[in-house]
Amino acid sequence: MKILVGVKRVVDYAVRVRVANNTIDLSNIKMSMNPFCEIAVEQAVRMKESKQASEVIAVTIGPSKGGTETLRTALAMGCDRAIHITTEQRTDFLEVQPRAVSKIFQSLVQEEDPSLVLLGKQGIDSDCGQVGPMLAGMLGWPQITFAASMEGDSDKLTLDRETDAGTETLEVQLPSVVTCDLRLNEPRYATLPNIMKAKKKKVDVRDISTFADLDLEPHLQVLEITEPPPRQAGVMVESVDELVDKLQNEAKVI
Amino acid sequence: HRHQKLLLYWHSIDFFHYFFRSDIYYKASHLSRVEIHQHNSVHIKNPILEITMSLQTISRRLLSRSTATLVSKKSKPLVTTMATRSYLSHSQLPEEHKMIYDMCRSFADNELSPNAGEWDKKHEFPTDAVTKLAELGMMGINVSSDFGGSEMDALSYAIAMEEISRGCASVGVIMSAHNSLYLYPIDTWGTDAQKEQFVEPYATCAHGDGLKVGCFGLSEPGNGSDAGAASTTATLDGDEWVLNGTKAWITNAHEASAAVVFATTDKDLKHKGISAFIVPMDAEGFSLGAKEDKLGIRASSTANLIMDQVRIPKDYLLGEQGQGFKIAMQTLDGGRIGVAGQALGIASASIDVAAKYALEREAFGKPIAQLQSIQNKLSAMAVARDSARLLTWRAAMLKDNKERFVREAAMAKLAASEAATMCAHQAIQVLGGMGYVSDMPAERHYRDARITEIYEGTSEIQHLVIAGDLFKEYKQAS
User: Fold this and answer.
1) What is the pTM of this model?
2) Which of A68, A75, A195 to probe the B interface (max B CBs under 10 A)?
């Protein structure tokens, strides 16, 4: 079974982003692999180690310099080879949007013919969570989002799916698109020998312009970006009645 | 043709750097040096180029020294030449070094920093963390892959040591003693049989019998800096060596299962009578002293190795008889890069805690980071740490280029250890009262930093090594 794993290069989770001129300034900011994509890579590599998968291909869309770093990390974790779609456009929703990403992935799926596409549930920069469902829709494949556990073989998978109401257990026939949630696994550190081996693994570099026949123009325009309001100090209440009153009338949650 | 011209240009500039570097080829003729240089750097065999270079060499030889100096001053100093790779900042590092940096940094943040305080308090060897390090290939970092190692270069080792020690200095010393002091000598001077038995299982955890750690027995109760005055004896009895004596201050003593021990076979020969031996620590007559109660690096065990009529097979001699002192000195050269890395890690951790605190703590109506006294301190700490880091990277890169690096390694260790103590001292000062209590890690960094000026060659010894090498250069020139 071949697995295609999507890997996104995002602002490092520990960095405090600053909003300026209705945009996020990305110059000199630390970038790293999206944490949910790390979980997806780890899941794919585990499936390869347990012989469920025969080949794992990592795919990223990003700048020529930064994108290779992200892919080398994926290769060092255990992917077999990688595809790098180069673009100097911003991949954080402002320029390259989920619809374009899904179309590119659709094209790659048609080319590579994997049985499973593993993605992170969302990018921590855009927080869209759209590529998984959109890609499944475009391919006509079943989708499981927010996977928290995964078992199965080359024909079908049994997954636990996390929702706000609780966890549901689902069975899905392959081929399928699965997006990975936090509790699925804990990503490994790349071992030193694997870091060295990653150097020799194949990275297929293609420019995004080779997909020009697909309509990749953004259909959504970002009007404004603002920082969330600063955290307010809490309010001390004297009694339970006062608490209920505030919840009902001020916060309006009950 | 243009490629040839470019090669000539690169070579002619680099030639002058080569001319003035003191190196292991100092006795070679200029002609041979250019040949060696070209052989090392460019794999293109071009007889016309070689002849042209030779003619250039001869014509340059005819120039006076002052003219040669003038010409070399005019030529642009190259950060990167074809033979010597030189990286001055993290952003310039090649991909795999960056990946090692990232990996070690996140390992230290996730696995080491949260637990280091606890391990220090309990004097507890962090077996799980060190086992994880071994699984990542960090406990055999320079060993060749034939013997289970990660086959990384000295620069990777220096970077890894700094990031790991930033998380926990004790884990740093455990890693450095194991890699530089135990694995390196056996990997360098050992026979294949010795490497199979004493390098392979120690470079990796893959053998299923858990973590295997080694140690290095050079210092004795009676001599530390004066390594040539070893009083541990080794006597050949049939086809066994019999070792008697005590080694002091041995890192990893209580966790190690094998040791590289230095003993004398003939005291009259002084340092030329010392040989290196591989000693399995479960041998009869081998015992350990009590764990030392140290000021810092308390998660690592330090104790005496006591050998009373310990018998080892004849072929556990490491290298040749009488070669022990040279093995020890060369091992310590490489070890100094590791310890410099550890000291840099402690300095970096101190700067981290001081800078973060200064941005939050308010006094006189504003964060103390806005006060000049604090700014001066943090600046001095950063300069000390960064300069020591550059010295360490330089020593590591020289070692990787197979050039002589004795002086540079001593400078790196000296600078880094003094930077560590200074940064840790000032970090406590910046934190004020909070720096004095165990709620913040500053006090632990202060205690951990102190040993870096003492072990693997005291700062005083480093001064002697540097001065000795410096004077040698001038003596040669005149």
Assistant:
1) 0.83
2) A195
